[in-house]
Amino acid sequence: MIAVILCGGESSRMGSDKGLLTLQSDTWARTIANQMAAAVPVPVYVSVRPDQYEFYRADFPESQIISDSYKIKVKGPLKGLLSVHEKFPGEDLLVVACDMPLMNAATIRILYEAYLANPDHDAWIFTNDAEPEPLCAIYGAGGLSRIFRLGRSGSLEKQSMKYVISLLFSHAIPIKPEWLKFFQNFNAPSDLNEL
User: Fold this and answer.
1) Rounded to whole angstroms, how far apart are CA atoms 39 and 62?
2) Is the Cα torsion angle 131, 135, 138, 141 positive or negative in sign?
3) Which string of DSSP letters, residue by residue, matches 96-158?
4) Strand order in 123-128's β-sheet?
5) Integer angstrom CA distances of residue 44 from 6, 104, 111, 138, 158
6) Which residues of 127-139 are buried (b: 16+ CB within 10 A; e: fewer)?
7) Where does the secretion signal sit in this chain (predicted)?
């Protein structure tokens, strides 16, 4: 398994790269990387668009940065996920989006323990009112391989992460009310007042 922070979004509503915004003294991407490293003993990588690569080198070693593959024609978070899968096809991927800077090690650890306890699944996800939270999840290499093939052949009907989850055999963990704050997405400058 490897851990991946998804930072390749356009951040159009925020107006600046969300992964490079700061919380206390660290960038959001670095904050999540630290929480992942504290939760799970696996290497941590950052998934970015090619035009972001140079900016992330200030925060991460080059060896930890994975640029989206030009060969992968899907869009959104799925492009980052499949680009990492293309580079590490045998690895299960623990992913957290960079716009969830309040995500903590304890919650990531709950996900990881569910993964260890239920190895016969394709994905391990949290759910909020039975709806999946696809950007704090674990995706198994086998399930990703099937999605990768569908994407390559143009057979993927939708490119949303929720649709991808519907194609996978997933283990779901209902989010407890006291965990909800960790799953908060910050997408616009007005959201920053809640940090």
Assistant:
1) 23
2) positive
3) EETT-TT--HHHHHHHHHHHHH-TT-SEEEEEETTEEEEEEEEE-HHHHHHHHHHHHHT--S-
4) 65-67, 44-48, 2-6, 93-97, 131-139, 123-128, 170-174
5) 11, 15, 16, 13, 28
6) eeeeebbbbbbbb
7) none
Could you give the CA distance from residue 134 to residue 161 in angstroms, rounded to a whole number? 6
DSSP single-letter state for residue 138: E
Instruction: Map tokens 């960038």 to a residue.
Output: 27
Average pLDDT over residues 31-55: 96
| pLDDT tens-place string over residues 12-30 | 566 678 888 887 889 999 9
**Per the structure block, which two tokens stand in for 1?**
């398994």
Question: Is the pLDDT confidence value at 193 over 70?
Answer: no
Q: Identity (one letter) of the amino acid at 117?
A: A
Of 43, 49, 90, residue with least CA distance to 66: 49
> What are the extents of the domains in the chain?
2-194
d(CA 109, CA 6): 18
The answer to whether domain 2-194 has CATH 3.90.550.10 is yes
pLDDT at residue 195 is higher than 70: no
| Model pLDDT for residues 118-129, shown as the tens digit of each residue | 999 999 999 999
